Amino acid sequence: MTPVIETLLSHRSIRKFEDKPLTEEQVTVIIDCARAASSSSFIQCTSIIRVIDPEKRRLLAEYTGNQAYVAEAAEFFVWCLDFNRHLQIKPDAQLGYTEQTLIGAIDTALMAQNALAAAESMGLGGVYIGGIRNNPDKVADLLNLPDYVAPLFGLCLGYPAQDPEVKPRLPSSLIVHTDEYQPINKDALAQYDEVVRNYYRTRTGGTKEMTWSEQIDGTLGKEARPFIKTFLERKGLSTK
């Protein structure tokens, strides 16, 4: 097993960090690794906002649902889909297509995953913050994001001050299909549900017992952010 594989398979979300800064060299390497990610048609439609200002960090922690680690982590980055840069290069660029929004989201996620993997390979830890989309207008105003730029998620990075278990993922038998899409293997799902139940029971000392299926039932039983489509359209994205 290579060091790269060991790093990827040992991923955990870290939400408690030591009060220790990263060096500028570390930050540069992490960003360089992000920049090295694949880009659809070489469009390179991502911008990264490195948030250093303590007051902006405090507000972002509030906007994301009072997630304290947004303010406490050594570094916090907001990852944005960005077609405004292209508009500055080509003022008559044909923008607003849904396919462009998909490309931006995919490219940005690939870059962010490179960044986190690089950070973890250095002994750092992190956690993605989807709560950035809880208040996208406030985040956009705070970070002065122009049209055709949308905040997708955040990323906390720092030295871990906790050592959580690796969260059990769906087994390959439930996600890998051969030649065509296949119905869910209910026996494999039942086994995985018990693994997840035991994980939560152990992690919380018995205060939470939930299967993955139960979690999905709760999560997908309602629309989490019904305002996102309108926000994207106001930014000039996914209008056609």
Automatic annotation (TrEMBL):
Q: List where the protein spans the membrane.
A: none
Entry keyword set: Flavoprotein, FMN, NADP, Oxidoreductase
Among Pfam families, the record links this protein to: Nitroreductase (PF00881)
Q: Which domain of life is it from?
A: Bacteria
Domain (Nitroreductase) ranges: 10-159
The family database entries (InterPro entries) matched by this protein are listed as: Flavin_OxRdtase_Frp, Nitroreductase, Nitroreductase-like
* Single GO MF annotation: oxidoreductase activity
Q: Which family does it belong to?
A: Belongs to the flavin oxidoreductase frp family.
NCBIfam families tied to this protein: PRK10765.1
Protein name from the UniProt record: Nitroreductase
